Amino acid sequence: MFSLPSARTLLAACRPSTWTPSLSGPTLSSPSLVFARGRHQLAPRSVKFIKRHKGVLPVPVGGSIKGTTLAFGDWGIRVKGNGARITAKQLKSADEALRRKIKPIKGAKVYMRVFPDIPVCIKGNETRMGKGKGSFEYWATRVAPGRVIFELGGAPIREELAREALRLACAKLPTLMEFIDRKAPPRLGNLLITPELPADVNPQQTIAAS
User: Fold this and answer.
1) Alpha carbon of 190 to those of 24, 176, 179: distances in Å?
2) Which pLDDT score is estimated for 113?
3) Which of 177, 18, 186 is nearest to 90 (CA)?
4) How many C-beta neighbours within 10 Å does residue 73 have?
5) Which end of the chain has fewer surrounding CB within 10 Å, N or C?
6) If phi over 0 gives left and psi between -120 and 50 gives alpha, with beta otherwise, what is residue 157?
7) Helix, strand, or coil here: 112?
């Protein structure tokens, strides 16, 4: 006769596994495993939290003019209208338009002065309130008035070609832009910061000389 197993043995066989993964190793909820960035994508390599508050557009109320003049190239565009939230898709489209236009020029480069590192989460239309924040949708960046977005440099580029290439890029962006060069003064919101002339200098002579 075969002996029947004990009740404790039967309970142990039917009980589900109590194994838990190590907390020190990577888990499935880790952003590095869930979000993989390709070489052609404009997205951060890794983030600590995939969801973030909506935030507000930056306004230079403190008088800072950082990022409103050219730093790498000879020609560029900057925000002339109100600040805006620019998505990674819009920046990528503008960048491709610039590169396509200046491709025949050997050594020409495109410099992007902003980067989309803000996650935007969206909930569906006609959704009831509650039940947490919406799911991740796309990456974006906030730009203030006067912020330089793109620059062209690396090789001598004619002004006519630079204007045409940057005009195509402006058509992909959601706010009003302006064309600038190395001589363009910094901008503080809607105000251009021009250098003050000494008291003994006649402004009419300075304009005529330039």
Assistant:
1) 51, 12, 15
2) 96
3) 177
4) 22
5) N
6) beta
7) strand
pLDDT value of residue 78: 96
Task: Compute mean pLDDT per 10 residues along the chain, 210 residues long, and list them.
Answer: 48 46 47 52 90 91 91 95 94 96 95 96 93 94 95 95 96 96 92 78 63
- The answer for 144, left when phi > 0, alpha when psi is -120 to 50, beta otherwise, is beta
- For the record, the structure tokens of 178 come out as 């302006």
The whole-angstrom separation of Cα 66 and Cα 131 is 41
Both structure tokens of 209: 């000389």
| 147 token code pair | 């912020």
DSSP string, 130-193: -SSPPEEEEEEEEE-TT-EEEEEESS---HHHHHHHHHHHHTTSSS-EEEEETTPPPEETTEE-
Half-sphere exposure of 106 (CA within 13 A, CB side): 0
b/e for 36-55, b at 16 or more Cβ within 10 A? eeeeeebbeeebeeeeeeee
C-alpha–C-alpha distance, residues 108 and 105, integer Å: 6
What is the pairing mode between strands 191-192 and 84-87? unpaired
Tokens at residue 39, please?
A: 């070489």
State the chain's maximal CA–CA distance in angstroms. Answer: 120
**CB-based contact 43:139 (threshold 8 Å):** yes
Q: For the beta carbon of residue 29, count every other beta carbon within 10 angstroms.
A: 8
